[in-house]
Automatic annotation (TrEMBL):
This is Molybdopterin molybdenumtransferase. It comes from Herbiconiux daphne. Belongs to the MoeA family. Its cofactor is Mg(2+). Gene3D superfamilies: MoaB/Mog-like domain, MoeA, C-terminal, domain IV, Molybdopterin biosynthesis moea protein, domain 2, Molybdopterin biosynthesis moea protein, domain 3.
């Protein structure tokens, strides 16, 4: 019996052969690039470790609007005997580094550099009075009078509690220190990743080139939405579904459906598109009918077709197709039933392609839930049922097990795993599931 894990291992090894040729490319991350070509940033993966070129924060700064003080100056402060200190010149975010005189309180704003000599910040709300003195009593450092204010004319501020050194000080390098690994290769580039890279001053990143996938959905009865159907014909659900699924993990997809059951027609598409392609993904044409176009086309070229002990998604194929004496292309063949194709994507193609891109873990996170109702499962197969997870962690199936129930899939947020050997699931039984809605 060929298990899901067996098949995933083999498909991952096959798809892994494209990894080296993917190489890398430089991506500008300036705001102009982000707004000018947002699609270029979708689902990108770092090709190499990024070493932090600077520390974040790059200097000690205040976490609060308040007073920078020397903690030792406040050691005796109580509500009965507050410590009163003269207020020094204020330091705002963006001001140059300043000096703090022992025995004074320096007004600092959030993000302002901690003046040398101070080691803690007391938020303004905990000072007496809990508001900053108004100008002109409080000159800014940049103003000529700042350094020359006579201490006896300075306003004072009271503190009723001692403060620990380091309080509300954001120390240099407390997020990341210069020279440390900022982000590892294989990291998927999202909002926070882009933000922190830009925060270190970098203007570009090195990302993996997108895997170029030729997607061929097959079936002579399949037609494009928007065209008229003859009796027996149906609209193509697999091309959009698989195109989007592949794009959602960073692939560049060329979708060329094959509306013929003739292997020569399918191979003509592959020959035409092969020069710009890393991987061929076919959908349909792999089961036991009289004419199975994918088997017929790729079987003789070295692609293997087999049954995996899973439902849906039993019939599968994969292998290196020898297109010519000098050209081989990896091919992954998914079954044509729309739910089977999408479940196969989740179980095999998604983890295989993410692994090829260097992303780990490549598999959806496995979570545990309890069945909200009893149901049955074929014991000879690992079943992947579609469902939803309730707030209390219970799992409710949506629709039946059949692989044509794409609407049920569309209403689902999870794939529920029912392992081989299980024929009856009772109310409350624990099951693994994958979230598929993100
Ligand atoms: N005698 C047997 N028959 C079947 C077996 C089997 O083991 N023995 N396996 C069944 C299973 S399980 C599956 S899954 C399917 C796989 O079939 P194919 O991969 O050959 O796919 P097709 O026959 O081309 O199509 C299956 C089904 O899906 C519909 N389809 C196909 N493409 C699309 C599309 N682009 N959009 C919407 N719907 C599509 C197609 O019309 C068929 O209804 O084989 C079973 N049979
Ligand atoms: O295995 Mo098929 O994919 O159930 O319908």
């Amino acid at each position: 019996m060929r298990t899901i894990d067996d098949h995933r291992r083999d498909v991952t090894a096959l798809v892994g052969t494209i990894s080296a040729s993917l190489g890398s490319e430089e991506l500008s991350i300036t705001p102009a690039a982000l707004t000018g070509d947002p699609a270029a940033f979708a689902q990108r993966v770092l090709a190499s470790d990024i070493i932090a070129p600077s520390s974040l924060p790059s200097f000690d700064n205040s976490q609060m609007d308040g007073y920078a003080v020397l903690a030792a100056d406040l050691s005796t402060a109580t509500s009965d005997a507050p410590v009163r200190l003269p207020v020094a010149a204020r330091v705002a975010a963006g001001d140059p580094f300043a000096e703090h005189a022992v025995g004074t309180a320096t007004p600092v704003m959030t993000g302002a550099p901690i003046p040398a000599g101070a080691d803690a910040v007391v938020p303004i709300e905990r000072a007496d009075p809990p508001v900053f003195p108004a100008f002109p009593e409080l000159p800014a450092l940049s103003e000529p009078s700042a350094g020359g204010m006579r201490p006896e004319l300075a306003p004072t501020v009271g503190f009723v509690d001692p403060v620990e050194a380091g309080t509300f000080v954001r120390t240099a390098g407390s997020d990341i220190r210069s020279g440390q690994v900022l982000l590892r290769r294989g990291t998927r580039l999202g909002a926070a990743q882009l933000g922190v890279i830009a925060g270190t001053g970098a203007t570009s990143v090195t990302v993996r080139r997108r895997p170029r996938v030729l997607l061929i959905s097959t079936g002579h009865e399949i037609r494009d939405p928007g065209t008229e159907l003859l009796p027996g014909q149906i609209y193509d659900a697999n091309t959009p579904a698989l195109t989007f699924a592949l794009q959602s993990i960073g692939c560049a997809v060329t979708a060329v459906p094959c509306r013929s059951d003739d292997a020569a027609d399918l191979l003509a598409i592959v020959d035409r598109e092969a020069p710009g392609v890393d991987l061929v993904v076919t959908v349909g044409g792999v089961s036991a009918g009289t004419r199975e176009v994918v088997r017929d086309a790729f079987g003789p070229l070295g692609v293997d077709f087999m049954k995996v002990a899973m439902q849906p998604g039993g019939p599968q194929g994969f292998g290196l197709a020898r297109l010519s004496p000098t050209r081989e292309l990896p091919v992954v063949s998914l079954p044509g039933n729309p739910v089977s194709a999408l479940v196969s994507f989740e179980a095999f193609l998604r983890p295989a392609l993410l692994t090829a891109l260097g992303v780990a873990p490549a598999l959806r996170e496995s979570r545990r839930g309890r069945a909200a109702h009893p149901f049955t499962s074929p014991p000879g197969s690992h079943q992947l049922r579609r469902g939803i997870v309730h707030d209390d962690g219970t799992l409710e199936l949506v629709g039946g097990p059949s692989s044509h129930l794409l609407h049920s899939y569309a209403e689902s947020t999870v794939l529920v795993h029912v392992p081989i050997g299980t024929s009856d699931v009772a109310l409350g039984d624990e099951l693994d599931y994958w979230r598929i809605d993100g």
